[in-house]
Amino acid sequence: MRTDKVRKLRPLMTALALVVAPGVAVVGTATDAFAVTKISHATATQMFRDVGITWSSSGGCSDRNNSTCTSFDQLNLATAQGAQTLKRATGCALNITGGTETGHASGTYSHWNGYKLDYGKNTCVTSYIKNTFTYIGLRGDGAPQYQSGSGNIYADEGSHWDVLYYNCGGC
What we know:
- By secondary structure, the protein is an alpha+beta fold.
- 27% of the residues lie in helices and 23% in strands.
- The protein is built from 4 helices and 10 strands; from the N terminus they run αββαββαββαββββ.
- It has helices spanning 2-13, 41-51, 77-90, 123-132, and strands at residues 24-27, 36-39, 54-55, 75-76, 95-98, 116-120, 134-138, 144-147, 153-156, 160-164.
- Strand 1 and strand 2 form a beta hairpin.
- Helix 2 (41-51) runs parallel beside helix 3 (77-90).
- The longest helix has 14 residues, at 77-90.
- It is globular.
């Protein structure tokens, strides 16, 4: 009898998991290697304010479905924490110019899926990345890439840094 209950509950246990907290949701299944925690735009902006990170958009907006906006809706918590880690480690001014809004390249580890942020370039950030992280070669589009000790990848796209966060960077 108990085995029947477990069999009936198993699909529920492997279903999409959502942790209900203000602006935070965990997305994944019980069989995933790990679950990705998604946060709201409001949660992300507060996290960024807390450490002095700024953000801007060419459209002056935060609509995820408008490519001229800078949105943080559905950003991975680890990505936001990675930005905080970078800010704390560098002490540099850090301005986010791209988040989860439409208009970026697609893929599993994409802006849309919450894994990437774009940062405006400045001498302080560029010097830190190039002098601290390991150069790992050119990306397919020719952008020079640098990898942090935690595995996150910083690509120099000319006008900005495109950063792929696999984790929070040692938060």
